Amino acid sequence: MARLVMKFGGTSVADLDRIRNVARHVKREVDAGYDVAVVVSAMAGVTNQLVEWCRQAAMLHDAREYDAVVATGEEVTAGLLAIVLEGMGVNARSWQGWQLPILTDNAHGSARILDVNGAELIKRFKDHSQVAVIAGFQGMNKDTGRVTTLGRGGSDTSAVAIAAAIGAERCDIYTDVDGVYTTDPRIEPDAQRLKTITFEEMLEMASLGSKVLQIRSVEFAGKYKVRLRVLSSLTPPDLPVAQEATSGTLITFEEDSDMEQALVAGVAFNRDEAKITILGVPDRPGIAYQILDPIALANIEVDVIVQNIGRDGMTDFSFTTHRNDLKKTLDILQNVCRHIGAREVLGDDRICKVGLVGVGMRSHVGVASKMFRALAEEGINIQMISTSEIKITVVIDEKYMELAVRVLHKTFDLDQPQRP
Ligand code: ASP
Ligand code: MG
Question: Is ligand 1 within 6 A of the CB of residue 77?
Answer without folding.
Answer: no
